[in-house]
């Protein structure tokens, strides 16, 4: 038996328990408990087979009512039974002709998975792993753990512990095994290959370069980590960036921030002429022209510069229209700078050339 209390104020360790169960093909019982709840999850050879919970919305009678399998009148009739053992309540439901055996099997399978998935929301539970083949259950299913991990990670409210440890490290991803291609979503697979194409960029740089939603990125990266598909370099990537490269990365972030005044961003007042705007934007675009960035050691910087170049061209058009219309505020609206397309569509002839940064 292994037992203990998970670290305070973090939900990071619940997924680690499920990772251990998956990797070791664990057979036995996982007990998670707190002041007002207790969950018991039963596994056979790494698969969830049964689950019990005393949480209100994880009782079978309540769950049946919530998903519309029984009516309000039937639920009220069962109100004295919802705290009973799931198998007992299920049999009573069948004998009362409220549901069929097929309904019960369907509900139990989804309820067991829900109990497991919701465990990822728990903060600092006391846990206990009891090793050994669990007894046979009247309601028993083979529910793989990987889909539970994927869905459970979406339930985690606080990813700061995971994020702080790795945001300035570079993810190193393996070739994606076929078994996980069947489990991950299309978007997760696209992100996986996108990260691999970023070379030695840190996680923080990847989010900026690929214009990703940070919350989605950190959750999917945690999934990749739990599946042991990614490692992280033990040193901070590119700490020797020149000041211009640091400015490039910061500009890329600011161009996407709707709260930042774009005239201030290019160091210009709102009462400038269009000719002055053209001159200033030409200067800025020359400074951050993608041709000036990137080398054999840092091709990822050129990718960020390509993004910035395209965003600056769009910004130039938007600010020109703003000056022509005489409006007092800039509404990016449909000109929002995130939608650049997969290849960025950056032409080579619109920006002046400068010295190359190696």
Question: What can you see in these coordinates?
Answer:
The protein is of the alpha+beta class. 45% of the residues lie in helices and 11% in strands. A 6-stranded antiparallel sheet has the order 1-5-2-3-4-6. Strands 7-8 form a two-stranded antiparallel ribbon. A hairpin with a 2-residue loop joins strand 3 and strand 4. Helix 1 packs antiparallel against helix 6. It is elongated. The C terminus is likely disordered.
Main beta sheet, described? Answer: 6 strands, antiparallel
How many strands in all? 8
In N-to-C order, the SSE pattern is EHEEEHHHHEEHHEHHHHEHHHH
Large-scale geometry: elongated
Mean pLDDT: 80
Give a concise summary.
The protein has 15 helices and 8 strands. It has a 6-stranded antiparallel beta sheet with strand order 1-5-2-3-4-6. A two-stranded antiparallel sheet has the order 7-8. With 358 residues, the chain is α+β, with helices and mostly antiparallel strands.
């Amino acid at each position: 038996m292994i037992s203990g209390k998970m670290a305070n104020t973090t939900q990071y360790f619940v997924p680690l328990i499920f990772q251990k169960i998956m990797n070791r093909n664990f057979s036995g019982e996982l007990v998670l408990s707190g002041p007002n709840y207790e969950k018991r999850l039963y596994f056979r050879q790494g698969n969830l087979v049964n689950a019990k919970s005393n949480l209100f919305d994880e009782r079978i009678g309540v769950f049946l009512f919530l998903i519309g399998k029984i009516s309000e009148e039937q639920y009220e009739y069962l109100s004295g039974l919802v705290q009973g053992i799931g198998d007992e309540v299920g049999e009573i439901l069948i004998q009362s002709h409220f549901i069929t055996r097929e309904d019960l099997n369907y509900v139990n399978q989804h309820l067991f998975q829900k109990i497991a998935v919701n465990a990822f929301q728990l903060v600092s539970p006391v846990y206990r792993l009891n090793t050994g083949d669990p007894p046979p259950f009247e309601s028993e299913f083979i529910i793989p753990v990987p889909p539970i991990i994927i869905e459970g990670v979406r339930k985690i409210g606080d990813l700061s512990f995971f994020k702080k440890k790795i945001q300035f490290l570079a993810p190193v991803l393996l070739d994606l095994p076929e078994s996980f291609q069947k489990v991950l979503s299309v978007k997760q697979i696209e992100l996986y290959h996108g990260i691999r194409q970023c070379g030695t960029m840190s996680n923080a740089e990847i989010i900026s370069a690929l214009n990703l939603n940070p919350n989605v990125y950190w959750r999917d990266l945690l999934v990749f980590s739990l599946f042991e598909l990614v490692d992280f370099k033990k040193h901070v990537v590119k700490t020797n960036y020149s000041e211009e490269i640091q400015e490039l990365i910061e500009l890329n972030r600011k161009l996407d921030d709707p709260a930042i005044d774009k005239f201030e961003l290019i160091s210009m007042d709102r009462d400038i002429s269009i000719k002055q705007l053209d001159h200033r934007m030409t200067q800025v675009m020359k400074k951050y022209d993608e041709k000036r960035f990137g080398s054999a050691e840092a091709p990822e910087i050129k990718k960020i510069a390509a993004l910035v170049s395209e965003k600056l061209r769009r910004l130039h058009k938007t600010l020109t229209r703003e000056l022509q219309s005489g409006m007092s505020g800039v509404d990016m609206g449909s000109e929002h700078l995130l939608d650049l397309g997969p290849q960025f569509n950056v032409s080579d002839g619109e920006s002046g050339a400068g010295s190359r940064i190696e």
